Each structure stands twice: as structure tokens, then as C-alpha cells.
């Protein structure tokens, strides 16, 4: 799969478009980092790109069909706030069907985001006592322009 942007960047844009988080440069509520958790603020979302799955090849093009992995890590000041945000993310990704996402001059179709887990409470950060929850999924997407 050849894309202009990494799948985790596309999904970050999708969550921003759905008003579930913000770009870190906006210095606003619930910034969304990719591949590296932001130190501040307390309430933040991070999307990691763990291993996904390969579905095989298309015939006759022999294009490999991948489903990149996603892990949403939601960190917040307390369990209730963090859980509410995690549940909102779950509801949003469960509703994705053929959703268009634009980043700069590139356009993507996010066909679906099938989850492999429900919300998983990880516990609290030992240094700050902030709550941490995760959700694991895969993404099926393509670039249309």
C-alpha cells in the first residue's frame, strides 16, 4: 500500500474532523499525537501503528492488501473523563464506513476501522496518577488522490 501519509496520520485527521481531538499545534483540548505520547496536557490521545494484517494479493495486479494496525492510547486526569473519551472514540470508529479524509492535497477513503478490542483500562501513570486506557483496531483505507 503506497500512501502519501502514514495510516496513523490519516486516522488522526479523521478524529480531528470528528471533533474528538485536536492537532498538537492547536494547543487545545485533547491533542492527538502519533507514535509518541505528548508530555502535556494531561488529557491527550496518542495513535500508534502496531503490526496489522495482510489479507493477500489482488488479481491480476498482485497488489498486496494490508490492514495496518492501530492502537489508540487515551490518557486523562481521571478514570471517568478518560473512559468517556475512549468510549466516544470507539463509537466514532465503529461508525466509519467509506469516510473521506483530506490531508493537504491528498484524499483518502477510510473504508472501515474494525476493532480487535473494547476499551482496555491499563491503569494509572505511576508518576502523575493519570488514567490510561487503550483500544486496538485495524484500518482499511485507500488513497483516492
Which key terms come to mind for this protein?
145 residues; alpha+beta; STM4215-like; 5-stranded mixed β-sheet; 3-stranded antiparallel β-sheet; 10 strands; globular
What does this structure look like?
With 145 residues, this protein is α+β, with helices and mostly antiparallel strands. The model has no long low-confidence stretch (mean pLDDT 92). Helices cover 19% and strands 37% of the residues. The strands form 3 sheets. The chain has a 5-stranded mixed β-sheet. A 3-stranded antiparallel β-sheet has the order 6-7-10, with helices on one face. The protein has one domain (7-143): STM4215-like (2-Layer Sandwich). It has 2 helices and 10 strands, in the order H-E-E-E-E-E-H-E-E-E-E-E.
The tally of domains stands at 1
Characterize the main sheet.
5 strands, mixed
What's the helix-strand series?
Answer: HEEEEEHEEEEE
Portion in beta strands: 35-45%
Classified by CATH, the class is Alpha Beta
Total helical segments = 2
Q: Walk across the major sheet and give the strand order.
A: 1-2-5-9-8
Global shape = globular
Mean model confidence by pLDDT: 92
User: What fold name stands as the CATH topology?
Assistant: STM4215-like
**Rg calculated over all Cα atoms:** 16 Å
Percent helix, as a range, is 10-25%
Distance between the termini: 14 Å
Number of strands: 10
* Low-pLDDT sequence parts: none
Q: Which structural category do the helix and sheet elements fall into?
A: alpha+beta
By CATH, the architecture is named 2-Layer Sandwich
Draw up the topology in text.
Elements: H1 7-17, E1 32-34, E2 44-48, E3 53-57, E4 64-67, E5 69-76, H2 79-94, E6 99-103, E7 106-112, E8 120-124, E9 131-138, E10 140-143
Parallel strand pairs: 1-2
Antiparallel strand pairs: 2-5, 3-4, 5-9, 6-7, 7-10, 8-9
Amino acid at each position: 500500500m503506497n500512501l502519501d501519509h502514514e495510516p496513523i496520520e490519516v486516522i488522526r485527521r479523521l478524529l480531528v474532523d470528528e471533533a474528538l481531538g485536536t492537532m498538537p499545534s492547536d494547543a487545545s483540548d485533547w491533542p492527538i499525537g502519533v507514535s509518541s505520547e505528548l508530555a502535556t496536557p494531561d488529557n491527550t490521545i496518542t495513535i500508534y501503528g502496531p503490526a496489522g494484517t495482510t489479507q493477500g494479493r489482488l488479481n491480476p495486479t498482485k497488489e498486496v492488501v494490508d490492514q495496518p494496525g492501530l492502537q489508540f492510547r487515551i490518557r486523562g486526569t481521571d478514570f471517568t473523563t478518560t473512559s468517556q473519551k475512549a468510549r466516544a472514540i470507539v463509537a466514532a470508529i465503529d461508525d466509519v464506513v467509506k469516510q473521506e479524509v483530506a490531508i493537504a492535497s491528498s484524499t483518502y477513503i477510510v473504508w472501515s476501522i474494525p476493532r480487535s478490542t473494547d476499551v482496555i483500562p491499563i491503569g494509572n501513570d505511576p508518576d502523575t496518577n493519570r488514567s490510561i486506557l487503550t483500544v486496538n483496531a485495524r484500518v482499511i483505507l485507500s488513497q483516492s488522490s
